Amino acid sequence: MMTKTLAQPAVMAQVWMLRIARRNAHRFLTYLLLIGGSIVFVIPLLWMVRTSLLPSDLIFADPPVWLPTAPAWTNYVQMWTAGPFLDWIRNSTVVTAIGVVALTLSSTLAAYGFARTRFTGRDKLFLLVLATLMIPFQVRLVPEYMLFNWFGWVNTLYPLIVPSLFGSAFYIFILRQFFLTLPIELDEAAAIDGASSWAILWKIMLPLARPAIATVAAFAFIDQWNDFLRPTIYLYTPENLTLAVGIRWFAGNNSTQFQLMMAASTVTLLPMIIVFFIAQKYFIQGIALTGIKG
Amino acid sequence: MSAIVGSRRRYRWWRDNLGVLYVLPWLVGFIVLQLFPFIASLAISFTKWDFGGAPVFIGFDNYRRMIADPLVLQSVVNTIYYTVLSVPSGLAVAFLLAVLLNQHVRGIAIYRTAFYLPSVTAGVATSIIWVWLLQPNGLANKGLSLFGIHGPPWLVSPTWALPALVIVSLWSVGGSMVLFLAGLQGIPQGLYDAVAIDGGGHFAKFFHVTIPMMTPYFFLTSVLGIIGSFQVFTSALVMTQGGPAGATTFIVLLMYWEGWQWWRMGYASAIAWALLVVILFFTAVQFRLARSWVYYEYGRPESGGS
Fold first, then answer.
1. Which of A58, A149, A245, B96 is deepest in the core (most CB within 10 A)?
2. Which residue of chain B comes nearest to A215, CA vs CA?
3. Looking at residue A24, what DSSP letter applies?
4. Can you tell me the distance from the alpha carbon of A243 to that of B155, in angstroms, rounded to the nearest whole number?
5. Helix or strand (DSSP H, E) at B282
6. In A, which residues are within 8 Å of B139 by CB distance?
7. What angle do CA B213, B215, B219 make, to 5 degrees?
8. Is the dihedral of CA A113, A103, B186, B180 positive or negative?
9. Average pLDDT of adjacent 10-residue blocks, chain B of 306 residues
10. Span between the terminal Cα atoms of chain A, in Å
């Protein structure tokens, strides 16, 4: 067989070319799908930016104006006066900033407690953390509303901020999984040197857990910034809305003003893009490290 | 003497159980914001409570009414239809994208960003963008006409409104994609090398290594995907307001209307509990089925273990 093939250089060359062709076909298909897919995924966002720069009289032009010759930057100016846009940005910033810090901190503490300390009933309590992941939060919504209404918190930002002080089951789960991957010998060595569990957390665990914590903080940022159901239920006067619900205001208000909604959407997306570029180094690495599959 | 023993015992308890302090914030939140509302909402579901007045106990009336309520039936059918369309296609798209991103090609960060960015776009912004794209003579139909397809009127058509929302959900599939990608990158290269030594090519590697090794991720994403798709809300509220002709009235949307438009808190709670039961049922079924198809490298993980 071998000698036969060697004896026929023409056949050899053919096999060889076929192999290269196959490999190239594979590469070609990969690039085709990657580039084609990226275009499909990005076009809606590009169309959003393009529409946000369109003068209002060209919005429904048919055939469409693909790119505005003179970008209507005035849409971005009009956006500030058409609704209480500054209030929305301020509210979203407050909710997100406090939420990210509080969620990350409280979830880290709980995750460390579940992963690295001993106390009676620890593993049973952790099962409860997992159980809350399976239960849709809508079940709790009516009593929660009643409770916060009783506190006088309806139409304030408190219902969006206060729950974040107590951590989130999903983040606790991710961080606990990560802490479990760190060698226990680190703790033991530090404990022999007289370090308290608090010192071990701050001096040893946190520096090592940076990718996982960055991942959780990024998730928390995205969730808080984009939260929709809670603000929809709790907030009703225009100046108290967050950005994620405020955008809708342009839809209900007199005629739907697509160019303003697209401008507002673009501004809403900006922080996500920034966070993504900062966190993307950690993102996949962090998720991979946490061994999320359980 | 006994005081000293007592204080020593207390000291010892605290020394052994100090860790509970770390989980204390979570525990307080769990009791006040999870456990209490959870039980209270079950209690409220047995009452007629028009917000403002006092709740009146009515036994199982809300549940009885729910079974006969055509709106509830429609919302359940719509939600299941949405789940059946969106979860399998979402998994397929997310996995395909992850496999593509796992190739060694140049400029991978750009593609990764392109696929991921839509999933971090605020739900309202996503909805508004797609309302605009899916206008009867919007960009989506302009694109289809390039291929000679006359696009449907999407959001104003009772037939096409729900599939349109599924398409929007596919656009936001980046979260599962990242999970898959993390999974793919965790597959030991040695397994592929072993297949190569045995003379296996791309297909053998894909079907005998990649797919079996990824089954825990398929399982995780399908469990989370079904839980998520049963809670579909934002796109239906913003894009279609549950219409046209109730074609996109989903369970959570109906619950929102009952609770915060019509202020029927008892009925809204009953709907929420029905949602919980349905979700737990589907989750349990999946865990049951998982035994036959999910492959665990190190045997089955203990519940709650790592």
1. A245
2. B178
3. H
4. 25
5. helix B265-293
6. 43, 47, 64
7. 150
8. positive
9. 68 78 93 94 93 87 94 95 96 94 84 89 90 89 89 92 96 89 87 89 89 90 92 92 91 94 94 93 91 71 42
10. 50
C-beta of residue A233 within 8 angstroms of C-beta of residue B256: yes
- Low-confidence stretches of chain A (pLDDT < 70) are 1-7, 251-256, 281, 283-294
Residues 6 or more apart whose Cβ sits within 8 Å of residue B187? B209, B210, B213, B214
Residue B157 CB partners (closer than 8 Å, separation 6+): B244
Which residues neighbour B115 within 8 Å (Cβ) at sequence distance 6 or greater?
A: A37, A38, A41, B97, B101, B174, B177
Partner B contacted by A143 (CB < 8 A): yes
Task: Provide the pLDDT for residue B303.
Answer: 43
Which is it for the CA torsion B269, B271, B274, B279, positive or negative? negative
CA dihedral A49, A50, A53, A58 (to 10 degrees): -140
For B43-112, the DSSP string reads HHTTEE-BBTB--EE-TTHHHHHHHH-HHHHHHHHHHHHHHHHHHHHHHHHHHHHHHHHTS--TTHHHHH
Residues 6+ apart with CB under 8 A from A193: none
Q: Note the pLDDT of residue A290.
A: 54
Nearest 5 degrees, angle CA A293-CA A106-CA B273?
A: 65
CB B29 within 8 A of CB A165: yes
**Rounded CA gap, A29 and A245, in Å?**
41
Residues B41, A149: Cα–Cα separation, whole Å: 15
Residue B298 pLDDT: 55
Q: Which residue, among B102, B124, B250, would best test binding to A if mutated, counting the most A CBs under 10 Å from its CB?
A: B124
At B32, list the tokens: 């006040």
Residues of A in contact with B124 (CB under 8 A): 228, 244-245, 247-248, 265, 268
Q: Could you please report the per-residue DSSP string of B181-201?
A: HHHHHTS-HHHHHHHHHTT--
